[in-house]
Amino acid sequence: MVQYWAKEPQETGMSVREFSRRIFTSLWRGVYPKDQKGIRQQGSRCYRTLEIERQLPAPQANNCGGRWGNKGTRKSFSDRGWSYETFSSLRRTLIDNVLRRVTNTQASSLRRRAAEQLTGRGNSAPFLALVGVSLASGSGIITKEDEIEGVCYEIRRAVSGTPLLDQFKDVSKEKEETDAMELSLKDFLLGKVIAKGCSAVVYTAKQVEQKDDDFNLAIKMMFNYDAASNALTILRAMQREIVPARNVCLPRELSDSAAQIGEMVRVPPHPNIVEVLSVFADKVPGLPGDLQLYGDALPTRLNPGGSGRNMSLFLVMRRYDCSLRDYLLQYREEINSRISTVLLAQLLEGIAFLEHNGVAHRDLKTDNILVDLAGGPEHPRLVISDFGCCLADKNTGLRLPYRTYDTDKGGNPALMAPEVALAVPGTFTNINYEKADLWSVGTIAYEIFRGDNPFYSSETTTGLQSRTYSMTELPELTDAPPMIGHLVRSMLKREPQHRPSPRQAATIVQLLLWSPSAWIKESKTINSQEILQWLLTMTTKVLCESRWGNSSAALQEYQLVATFLATMSMQDIRASIHWIQDQLED
Ligand SMILES: Nc1ncnc2c1ncn2[C@@H]1O[C@H](COP(=O)(O)OP(=O)(O)OP(=O)(O)O)[C@@H](O)[C@H]1O
Ligand SMILES: [Mg+2]
């Protein structure tokens, strides 16, 4: 478990010296996962590791994403819009300052062994160790704003390269975004039906060559009533579905046409976004039970009365254990407020990432959110799925020109934000979706914490209408921690400008989960040095845990912390602490 991370050194009675020693030792071990004696005896091996790190491709000048950087408009975790060169020179200046002025033993040992490594492009860990030592020694060296953001950059960079987040590394730089690989249905074995939605059916699946009987994939077959039966037309017609896809397969003869697929933004991998491993178009197959389940969507080849086309789109996904809706129903008794808070944090991380990449999901509901229970029901990992209604336009971004009522505003009207539901078309009207998903998450928070959504009607009650509700009609979130109640209310403000940004909302919940309790219980000024110390303590823990592993349950939590560390900025954290403290004063 990871609750103790957040403790400040003072809280545990730890001396500054001891604190700095621990940060230094664990970060140093994080770099060399051998015992210290082994390292001394095998100095050359240590250097080899760092040399390998240095060979990694350098980030682009307009991209500070480190190993997770990517091209074009795709923005991965640690991409905060600063250039690597800026940070590189900042790092050098900072190291010079620290090595000159800090005189404790850790610093001198660092000076001896690591000065050249510290200034290299490679591993951030020794640099962070040095920062930790200098912070703990209270020398007040890191005070300038750009230096502080520089350290945050190093943290993002170090964490985004850990195995905890490795499977979510964006490989688009190393691989063409659209592959000419000829994957097709014949490469997969379909199992049983998982679910049928309005626009698709989802089957369990495995690769044909897979030896075991584990149907660990899910294949979503879209219902195609309109698009002509050729791969390019189908991919273009259903291009929203492929927004999170890592790999789009086109028949070899069409690979030159890949650029014509569309003007959609593609979202890089993220722990809280569905893993769509591959997408391809193929002939609709005849499968047991298909006539009863979705006969109408079948082509006449398979059902003379069907109105489906001969080919359709197939999405190969990782298979998740259930939808959030089913998880909340099945485990209601076991879900305590901490688990609910973790779920909310993951959901907010997911939509903050989408917003950062210029994507609005526009159909958030518990059926479209999936849950991985590999760490057990008390450690769920949630992912946002079903991008069939999303807005991901490279040209217009999150502002949709709204000229006529025919324009598609998204799915599920019950959970549609007021500014979207109330928009009136006009020559100059744009609907701004920047905070629309956030509003929907505010309503879903009720389902997570209490079980019911005040915006849904039941047999006995009429739900609130997003067009007309007033803040006084929102029920109390009595089962949630009071600060979550405040946050959910602010996410549900009618005017988007009065809501926090998705990034800020995510940061607030992460702070509620992991920050020192004094920060969220009493109104006091928290300075940047304290925040940096806390960030470094968490970074230490994440770097170490990701190397030596832990139970898969704990790893789920570390992954959530890593997601935060790989995205945070000092500015966001300060704003979020202010927000929390303002609520304390009210
Ligand atoms: N990767 C997956 N692993 C496990 N179950 C999945 C997966 N993808 C989808 N499902 C299940 O299938 C259901 C339908 O999937 P999805 O929402 O993508 O289809 P849809 O037809 O677009 O839905 P809608 O009815 O919202 O239009 C989900 O609610 C979920 O229960
Ligand atoms: Mg759906």
What small molecules does the structure contain?
adenosine-5'-triphosphate, magnesium ion
Look at the structure and give the mean pLDDT.
80
- Count the domains: 3
Q: Rounded to an integer, what's the Rg over CA atoms?
A: 25 Å
3D structure, described in words:
This protein is α+β, with helices and mostly antiparallel strands and 586 residues long. It has three domains: 16-166, no CATH class; 172-319, Phosphorylase Kinase, domain 1 (2-Layer Sandwich), CATH 3.30.200.20; 324-497, Orthogonal Bundle (Transferase(Phosphotransferase), domain 1), CATH 1.10.510.10. Helices cover 40% and strands 10% of the residues. The protein contains 20 helices and twelve strands. The protein has helices spanning 16-31, 36-41, 43-54, 84-101, 105-118, 125-136, 145-160, 163-166, 231-237, 290-294, 324-330, 337-356, 418-421, 436-449, 482-491, 502-514, 517-521, 528-548, 552-565, 570-585; strands at residues 178-179, 188-196, 200-207, 217-222, 248-249, 276-283, 311-318, 322-323, 369-372, 381-384, 399-401, 430-432. The protein has a five-stranded antiparallel sheet, with helices on one face. A three-stranded antiparallel sheet has the order 8-9-10. It has a two-stranded parallel sheet with strand order 1-5. Helix 4 (84-101) crosses helix 7, helix 7 (145-160) runs parallel beside helix 18 and helix 16 (502-514) crosses helix 20. It is globular, with a radius of gyration of 25 Å. The two termini are 33 Å apart. The model is unreliable at 1-21, 23-73 and 176-180 (pLDDT under 50). The structure holds adenosine-5'-triphosphate and magnesium ion. Residues 197, 367-368, 386 line the site of magnesium ion.
